[in-house]
Amino acid sequence: MAGYASVALEETFSPPAGSVLWNKEFLLGAATAAYQIEGAVDEDGRIPSIWDTFSATPGKTLAGDTGAVACGHYHRWEEDVELLASLNVGAYRLSIAWPRVMTEDGAPNHAGIAFYRKLLTALRAKGLKTFVTLYHWDLPQHLEDQGGWTNRDTAYRFAEYADMISRELAGLVDAWATLNEPWCSAMHGYGTGHHAPGKQDVVLATRAMHHLLLGHGLAAARLRANDPAAQVGIVTNVGRGTSNGATDADQHAAWLFELQHNNWILDPLLKKSYPSALWELWPGAEPPVHAGDMEVIGCKLDFLGINYYFRTNVVSDGKHGYLEVDLEGVERTQMGWEVYPEGLRHLLVGFHRDYPNLPPIYITENGTASDDQVIGGEVNDINRISFLNRHLAAVDQAVKQGVDVRGYFIWSLMDNFEWAFGYERRFGIIHVDYATQKRTLKRSAKLVTQFLAERNSK
C-alpha cells in the first residue's frame, strides 16, 4: 500500500462565513443501511439475503464477520432515533431490507413492515426528513438462486416490492431512492466478486447493471403513483480517476476509468444511452437491451444522490484498459483510500457541465474510516473532523460554481458492518462497542451538533 502523508488535522468543525453550510435550507444529515446496522436476520419473518449467504461463506469477509447481530438496531431503534435527534441534524438516510418486508411468494411481511412504519413515524415526530433507499445490496437469496440481477425478471420483482412498500409507507417518506450504488452491486457483485453474490464475469456485471437500472425505472413509476408527495431519485457512487502517467494512453486510461465508474450509470439515467466507449473497455459485454428499456431507465429524477469517497490513479494497461497504481505519499484512510476532496468538487462541476438535465444533487454518502477507540469515555476522531471540513468545503466550492447541491449526509451515523471488511473499519460519528452495543458520541458528532445548534439558532 502507498505511504501515508502527514497532514495538519483540524480539531474544530467550523465552516467559514459564506459557506452553503450556514444556509438553514441546506440539509445536513447522517446515513445508514439496513444490513449494516439492523441484525435480527432471522426474526419476525425476515428471509435470507445474498449478504447472509456471502458473509457466512468462509473467506468472504474479514474475520468471518456477518451482519447477523450488527448494531442491534432492529431492537435498539428507539435509542438510535433519540441519539440521531440529539445531533440536531435535519435528515436521516436509511434503507429498507427487502427480505424483511416481503415473503418468498411476494406477499407483504407485516411484522417487517411494522418495524419501518414505527421507525419512520418516530423520525417524523422528531422533525427529521426521511430519505429511504429501497435497495442497499440485500437482495433476497431466493431471487439470486434464479440468477439475481443477471435475470431480467428480478427488475420486475423489484418493481413489485417498490409498489408494495410505497403503498404501505406512503406519507412517511420525504424522498425515495430506488437503488444505492448500482456500480457496486453490478461490478463488485458480479464482476470482481468482492461483494455478494461473489460472481466474477464482466458480462454478468453489465447484464446486472442493465437490469438494476431497468428495475430503477420500473420502481420509480410505482413510487410516484403511490406516494406523489415524495421525491423520487437514485443514489450512485462516483469516482475521480487521474493518471500520473505522461502518455496519451495513460490519460485515456484515466478517462476510461471515469467512463466505467460514472458515465456507465449517469448516461443511461440522463441521456438514455450507454456510452459506446464502454465496449472498447469491455469488448463483447454489451447487455441485452429490449425495445423501450432506455426510456424506462431515463425517467424523470427529482434528485440524484452522489456518494463519493476517493480518487483512483491509473495507467494504461497497454491494451484497451487501465491498471490501478497507488500514488505514494498521499493521505489515506483506514480503508486505504486516498483522501482527495478536490475530486468531489471536480466531479460535481463536470456533471453540471456535461448533463444539462442534471437534477438537484444530495451528497448521500461521504465519510472516512479510522481505528477509533474509546479512551476515558471519549473518542477523539480529529482525522474525521478534518475530512468532513475539507469535503464540505469542496461541496461549497461546487455550489459557488453553479452546481445545485441541496444537502450532505455523513457516512455513517454509527460504526457498523462494513461489508467484506466486517467490523474492523469504523465509519461512524457514533462509536459502537459491539460486545455491549454501547453507543458513544465521537468528537465529530459533538462538533457537528454544536455547529447545527449555532446555525439553527440564527
Automatic annotation (TrEMBL):
It holds the Pfam family Glyco_hydro_1. GO terms for cellular component: cytosol. The keyword Hydrolase applies. InterPro entries: GH, Glyco_hydro_1, Glyco_hydro_1_beta-glucosidase. Substrate binds at Q36, H136, N180, Y309, W411, E418, W419. Keywords: Carbohydrate metabolism, Cellulose degradation, Glycosidase, Hydrolase, Polysaccharide degradation. PANTHER family: GLYCOSYL HYDROLASE, LP05116P. The active site is at E181 (proton donor), E365 (nucleophile). This is Beta-glucosidase. One of its GO terms (molecular function) is beta-glucosidase activity. Gene3D superfamilies: Glycosidases. It comes from Duganella vulcania. The keyword Transmembrane does not apply. Coiled coil: none annotated. Belongs to the glycosyl hydrolase 1 family. Its EC number is 3.2.1.21. It catalyses: Hydrolysis of terminal, non-reducing beta-D-glucosyl residues with release of beta-D-glucose. GO terms for biological process: cellulose catabolic process.
